[in-house]
């Protein structure tokens, strides 16, 4: 399907998490252990927040493991909040406009999974997008449609609530078309200050998603690890699959749930319950 990661914490060189980990996101692009496909080589995307206005973006259709430009950038960009995504295309073209993260103003959005029967539901979902946002959909992925529907339903004010309404709409439209597997996957969202993540599937097990343990717990478990000694209380990772096999570092995010990561290493959990938005229910 895809793999993604998000970091919120102290500023770090991006290469530390993309390249300098046992099983980081670049390694996962070639050797995913928990994904639907072991190889995710249909493009790469990086979105980061720094000193400029809004997030920066780098997209490439080259596989992450062979992208010399990515390695060069990752070795020189330091960021306190960034998201990376490796893609395994399932029906849409391999092109830069289909690479995650997607951006709107100061928001970034990534997805691992699919919208079932997209060819049948895409028109209805596109028509739900606010007219002022409609022209911003440039690619052909289901993810970009989901992002713009969520923006329409209030992502900027209430990210989890907007995604609940978005998924509720998708499931309602899919039901009208006789599509049982409406939504599958995980979603990641950030405004540059906070990070939100969702794990959900209409039916069956959802794609995997993990959060890192708090820094103090990691240091207590592995006191002799020099990399972990540099961790601060601010640091949290959300990942499609763990970056290492060391015990105690990762906690699986339950299915049908959402997490909010705030500065200070705060990790909040809540249930994720899709609901049809009022505007759609009375349309």
Automatic annotation (TrEMBL):
<dbReference type="InterPro" id="IPR017932">
    <property type="entry name" value="GATase_2_dom"/>
</dbReference>
<keyword id="KW-0315">Glutamine amidotransferase</keyword>
<protein>
    <submittedName>
        <fullName>Class II glutamine amidotransferase</fullName>
    </submittedName>
</protein>
<dbReference type="Pfam" id="PF13230">
    <property type="entry name" value="GATase_4"/>
</dbReference>
<feature type="domain" description="Glutamine amidotransferase type-2">
    <location>
        <begin position="2"/>
        <end position="242"/>
    </location>
</feature>
<dbReference type="InterPro" id="IPR026869">
    <property type="entry name" value="EgtC-like"/>
</dbReference>
<dbReference type="InterPro" id="IPR029055">
    <property type="entry name" value="Ntn_hydrolases_N"/>
</dbReference>
<dbReference type="InterPro" id="IPR052373">
    <property type="entry name" value="Gamma-glu_amide_hydrolase"/>
</dbReference>
